[in-house]
Design goal:
The chain is mainly beta. It has a domain of about 60 residues: Roll (SH3 type barrels), CATH 2.30.30.100. About 15% of the residues lie in helices and about 40% in strands. The protein is built from 1 helix and 5 strands. Strands 4-3-2-1-5 form a 5-stranded antiparallel sheet. The longest helix is centred in the N-terminal third of the chain and has 11 residues. It is globular and about 55 Å long. It starts with 8 loop residues before the first helix and ends in a 21-residue tail after the last strand.
Length: about 90
């Protein structure tokens, strides 16, 4: 059985915002870096220091590089079967 996780640009930015991790976003061939000050479905605000920030449309972000541990699926032991439980 294979398990997949949908990990999007928005998910990466939301997680970076929650953890305070630094990120780089690729916008029209340029890498911009900073901490995510705000993010929603329309855009992201990157704070680069106390005196500057950038507002970027989500549709313009091609990639996100996050300086934090990546998401991991739980490791399975041989012979262990996972089944969905009703809510």
């Amino acid at each position: 059985m294979s398990e997949s996780v949908l990990y999007t640009v928005g998910t990466a930015l939301n997680r970076a915002h929650a953890s305070g991790a630094e990120v780089q976003v690729l916008v029209e061939g340029q890498w911009l870096d900073g901490r995510v000050a705000a993010v929603d479905g329309h855009g992201v605000v990157l704070s680069t220091d106390q005196t500057s920030h950038a507002v970027i449309r989500m549709s313009s972000v091609s990639a996100v590089r996050t300086f934090a541990a990546g998401p991991r699926a739980p490791e399975l032991q041989a012979g262990v079967r996972i089944t969905a439980m009703p809510a």
